[in-house]
Fold this sequence. Notes:
Two copies of one chain form a homodimer. Chain A is 44% helix and 11% strand. By secondary structure, chain A is of the alpha+beta class. The first copy, chain A, has a single domain, classed as Arc Repressor Mutant, subunit A, CATH 1.10.10. The first copy, chain A, binds a DNA duplex through residues 38-40, 54-56, 59, 66-72, 74, 91-95. Chains A, B: This is Winged helix-turn-helix transcriptional regulator.
Amino acid sequence: MTHRTVGHPAGLPDDPRAHVTAPSPECPVEITLAALQGRWTTLVIRELLRGDRSYSELRAALPALSDKVLSDRLAQLTRTGVVERHRRPGWPPRVHYALTPNGHRLGPVLQALWDWGTQTPLPVP
Amino acid sequence: MTHRTVGHPAGLPDDPRAHVTAPSPECPVEITLAALQGRWTTLVIRELLRGDRSYSELRAALPALSDKVLSDRLAQLTRTGVVERHRRPGWPPRVHYALTPNGHRLGPVLQALWDWGTQTPLPVP
DNA sequence: CTGAATCCCTGCCGATACTG
DNA sequence: CAGTATCGGCAGGGATTCAG
């Protein structure tokens, strides 16, 4: 959502996207949130941060995740440049999924999310 | 979503939430994503990172944001411990919103999201 | 001024069934 | 094995209107 949150530690000196007054898909914050968006997304990324996985390995690791949503998530992550598909020719079909370099850079991002969550009491519903 | 993303830099040595196999509201990553969730949320936080704001100042800063969604967001952020409300007695009613200490700690989180987004090419639709 | 209540519409996600 | 097709329920969010 277009931030220049605190100081200018790492962003451009005066990025115009830091001053937008409405949600914009070009804002870096929204780009990242869009990549992480959707139920199960971060769990799939977590599995792949531990190493490459085939489709069935992902299904086994996340048993409650349906085929439809799993392939949706893998397609989304492929579109957003987080994940790469690798097809092995022959039979039976074998497809491996691996994080791209960009995908690996989500490690620190998830760590930041984890850290804030551990310092925060659960909201009282 | 329950991660222990890379190594154990800051999390507990063996937090069970790092191994959950389904989305869980107790996972620190999900707690944070829930706090940031929803359209306009991060823009509201950005405004408040720049300093306290009254309701009408927030409306002026984000003109395309409707009353309903603005009060929804402020209620959500209050529930999640990010924002505090301060009513000024008297007339006309004046309400100021300010980040809590926890809210200020979202600065580095948004910075991490910003940084990843700037290193990532926009997906080709 | 600062919201809450209502209505409607859209898009997500889960379940099930089917294909290369 | 690795997906796609289809359907339905439900929640998110925008516009408008009403209230303290």
